Amino acid sequence: EIVLTQSPGTLSLSPGEGATLSCRASQSVSSSYLAWYQQKPGQAPRLLISGTSNRATGIPDRFSGSGSGTDFTLTISRLEPEDFAVYYCQRYGSSLWTFGQGTKVEIK
Amino acid sequence: EVQLLESGGGLVQPGGSLTLSCAASGFTFSNFAMNWVRQAPERGLEWVSTISYNSDNTPYAESVKGRFTISRDNSKNTLYLQMNSLRAEDTAVYYCTKGDRGISPRVFDCWGQGTLVTVSS
Fold it and tell me: Who contacts A52 (Cβ-Cβ below 8 Å, separation ≥6)?
């Protein structure tokens, strides 16, 4: 089973700064099947990025995804107050859906 | 607008049973795979099960295989999760999610607000 490891566990940043979140897979993952979700406190997760780099409907362009093979990245170019949340990467393959453990982006 | 409304959560004793429901609206339910994803308190997300648009494919996470059964009623636009032999480690918020295609969804593109299941004596 492919394991997704996200780093760092917590990122402390100020509004306006950029954020780089990492998701590393234990084996190579098809870029078509790598996604990112955002979860704010007390809310359900929402889809941000599918297929490594495709923003979901309504997601601002300050969010971007990249990567291939075993290393994937979610970049937030300039943090807005509403971006402070937990971010999860997720992978689909062989009728299994796996999430990373999450990265919390908190206000410094 | 897509809406997913879960119900059926609550407190249940270890070894007990519970059935969750998810009423869907705002899209053609019968065209899309549906899924359950859970989140234990202060923990991350865990995929539980998926059902294809026609109910022919129903994979499960190893942690629930043999105890949970996913089903759907396309005439009622409703998704179900029958949970038997519940354990303390099944305590979580259970989210109903919509897949992005009819079989083997790549992503979960819409999420309900979740229903809390607590397994405790």
Answer: A31, A32, A34, A65, A66, A67, A68, A72
